[in-house]
Amino acid sequence: MIKFLIIRKFKNSYPIIVVVYLLIYTPLIKPQYFSATSINSIDVTQTTGEKPQSKVWTNDGKWWMVIPDINGTHLWYLNGATWTNVLDLSSVTDTQADCKVSGTVTYVLLFSPSNTSADLIKLTYSGSTYTSVTSYL
User: Fold this and answer.
1) Host H or E run for residue 10
2) Cα–Cα dist 135/120, whole Å
3) Checking phi first, is residue 115 left (phi over 0); if not, alpha (psi -120 to 50) or beta?
4) Fewer CB within a 10 Å sphere, N or C end of the chain?
5) CA 50 → CA 90, 93, 97, distances in Å?
6) pTM metric for this prediction
């Protein structure tokens, strides 16, 4: 917004005036950023691979994730600084997940490299959590 105002104000002036104006007033502009918070780790049995962004998403102001641990593959949500297991998706512990969010529905494709099986799961968001699980494969 400031650059636009500067360009309009000095449109017919010398470029040096614009440069001097930017050098004087740019340090007064406060940067826009968010703080980072450390979160507690969880022990997982499979890496996120090359696409970690397809396993983590936001819905209704909450962060969600699908990843396996020693007990199977689960849907997790970030509760403060701790990931909380809210739904069991599979008993398989080496799945790789790809998630696609579409409004209140999230589709999760789980692939297990050890037994070359796949499962497509439909999660439905209702209220403040995902409540139903439907398996298609």
Assistant:
1) none
2) 6
3) alpha
4) N
5) 22, 18, 11
6) 0.70
